[in-house]
């Protein structure tokens, strides 16, 4: 039973349904200026006007990533950016270690195997974080064996935040390339790519960047570039060389999704105006409010440990008296708030509240109040 | 010197610059409803609301392509769709014949070579069309040799329309797969994919579909599917199997560019409401008006033969008294009309007027009047 610490009036029936508010772990709500940028007239992708968009976007992405290395922009999803990282730096047969802690990190193991890599995995149960000790153990067991180690910063399917800074140091010391899924962490959680020494870091537009899906981002270190030069990848669309050459000239190698770039330009300006330390603090505050509120409502968090709790998405276990579909339907139909369920074995066990991108404390308290009303019999 | 058949008042200087109107061969201008769809709020890509978009979009694309086979939608450019066609149906070392008649068909030869195929090309000078005779000759010379033949319907860099119907019959009779670049022809020129027996046909969103770039389309015949099942392509993001499975369930395998799909939904409704025969007739009318008008202005067309002139883009040679940059600057700065120059060896030789997508007779006469004024000393 919910533990009501505040008296809460019962919801009155209304006939005007509210505009849906997304609190899934991406896509996120969109700021007005981002939506207006999406609705602009057609623009030539080789025009000076579009070149000016690229001149702003490329360095702003480097600021968010905390890197002086190039951050490539692909017209494609985050899955494509991870595939691009692998095919541009690894050859068939190369040994890869994948740290698995959920659906998305599991996908990277599947992908590496399909691409012909020799894949080892270290898997923890969903809701738990990968550990430095098990990584160190695996690396020590097979010296000079792995060409790359794949990590997930914030696992979108569980809301686990892996403590990747010491892991990146271990991988770097071992001499392997690090490939980091920062899809839901970049722009929500501090991840200074150069300082932490990460080689290939990927993210997606519909997450901390508070814009629609369709673009993905990939930072490429000098070590990763050296691996690219030894790699026999034959493809064109994701070829690093083509992106590097175009990016140096503030262009794109193939026809870009122009309107998504213009939306990205607006979103990056909003983020950098707020200031990245403030952006990160806002996400941490939203995480804390939602975790504390859920606990006060008598609910159990999937990730019990604050240190490993994502700043982007919080997984809450369904209580015994109400199942996941009923909670989601109540939130959506009565309150117009869309939250996610779990994936695979967690499908009917948890709800996932996304609090990344264009979200404020108002939305955090809104979803908690709505959740309280839905849970009250 | 222009041959003025109508008296034309001199342009008066104005201080309010006109909104740029795109008459390049893609991206094209956007209808209002397409722009408004782009500016909608965020939407979950696994929501029932987005599923309804896919339920409309997939069959409507089949109607435009004239096929009962699946038309896959990639969040990626047309280049990616061509790469997807090759990697999903061919193995390294397979022999491929590429008919080259310009920059884009040249790119397909480069791509096939980079992907490890054994590539032969038949190349005609830019502005000329590939011939059935040379294709038949090449096929007869090497029986049972080629696994695929790559054709271009409308070559964007020159404005040539290849007469592909008999070529497709020849390829089919030979037993090879046909791969057709229909980037600027689909939605502008009749191309009944099933009737003509084309195996892999690709197009892009920013062309006849009058929406922003970022999506590409690829129809896959049963023969192409059989080739896929014999192919050892290891990638994930462009894997036909994943798209087929998702499409059958009105879903997408990876996170789609939601707002581009919503724009596509609007654009397809506009196209099917106009009716495809009317859409094609409109493009043919625009082509005829611009070709006749240019000739009346005393200008020479790059493609002299009406039968091989694209319905999407018309290349006009610069007259001796004015160079390409001056013409383009005059059209853009005084009239707010953006046309393209040539590419590679045609860079400073031709202007290319795009008349595909959201264009009407009003725009055809507008660009001709503006051109007449620019050319008048």
Task: Give a short synopsis of this structure.
Chain A is built from 13 helices and 14 strands. Chain A has 377 residues and is α/β, with parallel strands linked by helices. In chain A, the strands form four sheets. A seven-stranded mixed β-sheet of chain A has the order 2-10-9-8-5-3-4, sandwiched between helices.
Describe this structure in words.
The structure is a homodimer of 377-residue chains. Chain A is an alpha/beta fold and 377 residues long. Chain A folds into 2 domains: 21-29 and 276-375, Aspartate Aminotransferase, domain 1 (Alpha-Beta Complex); 33-272, Aspartate Aminotransferase, domain 2. Chain A has helices at 32-38, 48-65, 78-89, 103-114, 132-141, 164-174, 193-196, 222-229, 240-248, 258-274, 276-296, 324-335, 361-375, and strands at residues 21-22, 71-75, 95-100, 118-123, 146-152, 154-155, 160-161, 177-181, 200-204, 215-220, 313-317, 337-338, 340-341, 350-354. In chain A, a hairpin with an 8-residue loop joins strand 13 (340-341) and strand 14 (350-354). In chain A, helix 5 runs parallel beside helix 6 (164-174) and helix 11 runs parallel beside helix 13 (361-375). The longest helix of chain A has 21 residues, at 276-296. The mean pLDDT of chain A is 95.
